Amino acid sequence: MRRLAALMAAGTLLLSACGGDRSAERAADQPAGAGKRLSIATGNTTGVYYVLGGGLADQIGRHVPGYQATAEATGASVENIQRVVRGDSDIAFTLADSAADAVAGKGAFTGPQPIRALARLYDNSTQVVAAADAGVKSVADLKGKRVSTGSPNSGTEVIALRLLEAAGLDPDEDVTRQSLGLPESVQGIKDGTLDALVWSGGLPTPGITDLFTSLKDEVAFVPLDASLPKMQAEHGPVYAQGVIGKDVYGTPADVPTIVVPNLLVVNEKMDPGLAESLTRLLFDRRADLEKVHPSARGITREKAPETDPVPLHDGAKKYYGR
To answer: Are 28 and 58 in contact (CB under 8 A)?
Structure first.
């Protein structure tokens, strides 16, 4: 019996060894990084970052061998950069003004942050929506009003506070400010607990579409053309003139606004090969991303490398031939 047990044990070891060899062979056949998961920091669940981030995650899983990705709902730009720096997220959507603050180590950031860009994406449109009966025809008219300035540590919050200051308003004294995400802001307008909201996002933003579909002419955009010169004088050309076409949300006329580019950023320590693959994916699968959200049409090979003052990642540089 002892000899039989010894023979059985030896056989088990032999089978295990053979199985181990086959496992090693399969592992050797898999690409580097097989089974690794990437986290994509996006934004509010009714915003474009979240929708497009979900599409990007799907394309990574399909076309970047050995990787799967998940789109994470966040407070957006500032928080996203902080997550990438800490290593909580691998990829992040961010507004260019927040990213510029990060590399300069100013604003919400203490010291320069180790981020690098993969690409300039589409432009975000600043969308200030007010209840029609609130009497808000300009940013200055927000004085004394109940205003949502976006999620804490979001790019929307950065722009909202700068808009108020450019209009000569103190964000903490002259308005009743609420730091709400887009879903809560939209509901606040519907419920009458808010007079206005500020949002920075691609066109169309699902939450804003919902607002205009539900309330129709009970809400209206606040034009921002008068605010642009002061914004540029204070913060530079990262802010540019834009327009929200009347066909986007079914408004009576086009509305002048302020646009800011979006960037896709990663930690400077990301593997260059992975960074190159992710950059290539944006263009190889752009048609698929456009099906997820039309804002992806704004991702162009010509403008994508224009990420200054945020440096391109070495992997992105290789893709662009720089």
So the answer is: no
